[in-house]
Amino acid sequence: MQLPFLFLLAAAAIAQSLDPGKVDAAVEQSMKSWGVPGAAIAILRDDRVVIAKGYGVKDGKTKQPVTANTLFAIGSTTKAFTTAAMAILADEGKMNWDDRVQQHIPFFRLSDPIANQLVTMRDLVTHRTGLVRNDLLWYNSPWSSEEILRKAGHLPLAFPIRQTWSYQNIMYLAAGYAVGLASGSTWEDFTRKRILDPLGMKTSNFSSIAAEKAADHATPHDRKEDGSVDVIPWRNLDNVGPAGSINSSASELTRWVRLHLNHGVLEGKRLISEKNMREMHTPQMVMPQGPSSGRFYVPGMDQITYGLGWAVHDYRGHLVVTHGGAIDGFRAQIAMIPARRLGVVVLSNLGERNMPEALRLTLLDLALNQQPKDWDAVYIGMETEQRKAADAARAERERKRPKSTRPSLDLASYEGDYVNPAYGTAKIAVKDGKLSVEWSRFSVPLQHDNFDTFRAQGGRLNDTAVSFRLNASGDAASLSMLDQEFRKVNQK
After folding, report:
1. Are 177 and 242 in contact (CB under 8 A)?
2. Cβ contacts of 32 within 8 Å, gap of 6 or more
3. DSSP for residue 28
4. In the CATH hierarchy, which fold is given to the domain comprising 2-389?
């Protein structure tokens, strides 16, 4: 008799109403700890929105307050919308999780012939194709979605297919591209008509251009080298939309979370079958534990796996379904405990910081009537350790770097066009007495490092090594950059 009694006590504790004052204090303390300009949160329980509220400011310059309806970029939490679109098509018999990708995208290929023969839609959305990130093929690039997918077919795989979990945005682009073809539409149109509109997510959209035109939207911010926080431009993600382009608000995301906690039904209307909702939340691939798994990691967890657009892990004896999002100037977290019909949304307008990761755990603790740990301190400590490790690696590299070396050739002899089948053309030229590289939309100077290796200075390519290889005649024949080989195709 004692165990049922204890269970009833636990259930009663969870059923207690949240103290809004404690929630406010937790959010405000987290924002202060991380220096976040603005945030919005939502907490849901038993198909009811308990709290949906904005804090701080949308823009550090205008100081307009954040509301529950303020649009934020939600980054990779978009991925679950893509798998939900796939689930709808699966319900209609237009797509199956284990269809070969080429059934839906005839031109799709992977460079490894075995992987290319085996790869399925499920492989794309569980990060197990064997392809590592290669994010600069889409980030700030001039290439369309189709061009990126065609380029990806030339990339060498780092692992055999289905052997290792390795986070991958381009494969989610492929999944969304397949959704568009299978539905006779586009990923954006299908997701709007079959998910956002039925859920009443009227202001949510798919483009930074649309977000910036919205009456109530946050502005992205980032931390400068001196520690201050400043406004930065929105990052356009149109060419990789299914992996991370949705913009939404805490208020509208409550309807998305309710759909998941109700197994595909919202307000009596079924959008997705219970079978495929459960499939999305079912572990598919074991993920590495530890800070290397990034925004999915919870210190002290016993297991973490990846479902279909969601990570699945344990937390304080509960099964959590969650995903994070990050893009220039924004972070997002959505976390659910399905067995307790509990959900949390955290959005912030400061990039590169783990505030939403920390705050989601604090809010889950409060909702579970647990004494919260100081999760801000835990995650700040993790960030500090990661920075120390990175600094130590740079110091060790500098210690080992051959000193007092010179390039083998005069700078003009390195000039020319260098081509990679996936990454395109890198143009090397001499500007103001230094080598420079132009590639994609990047144009940065190169600083000599050692022998025929130079390092990019500035922007997203900063500190990237550019190493030249000479042929038997002593001429520059190729260069290595971003773990890719570019072959010289002409002389300047």
Report:
1. yes
2. none
3. H
4. Beta-lactamase (3.40.710)
- State pTM to two decimals: 0.94
**Is residue 337 a contact partner of residue 364, using CB atoms and an 8 Å limit?**
yes
- Residue 371 one-letter amino acid: Q
Q: Which amino acid is at 97?
A: W
**Domain map of the chain by residue range?**
2-389, 411-488
> C-alpha 19: how far from its chain's center?
32
**Are the C-beta atoms of residues 166 and 130 closer than 8 Å to each other?**
yes
Pick the closest to residue 94 from 121, 126, 125, 128 (CA basis). Answer: 121
Q: Which CATH fold topology does 411-488 show?
A: Lipocalin (2.40.128)
Q: Transcribe 42-62 into DSSP letters.
A: EEEETTEEEEEEEEEBS-TTT
Q: Rounded to whole angstroms, how far apart are CA atoms 440 and 144?
A: 12
Distances (CA, A) of 312 to 74, 335, 390: 19, 10, 28
Query: Closest Cα to residue 42, out of 194, 199, 191, 248?
Result: 248
| 3 burial type by CB count under 10 A (0-12 exposed, 13-18 middle, 19+ buried) | exposed
Asked whether the domain spanning 411-488 has the same topology as the one spanning 2-389, the reply is no
Q: What is the pLDDT of residues 413-448, one digit of tens each?
A: 999 999 999 999 999 999 999 999 999 999 999 999
The three-state secondary structure class of 430 is strand
SS3 call for 148:
helix
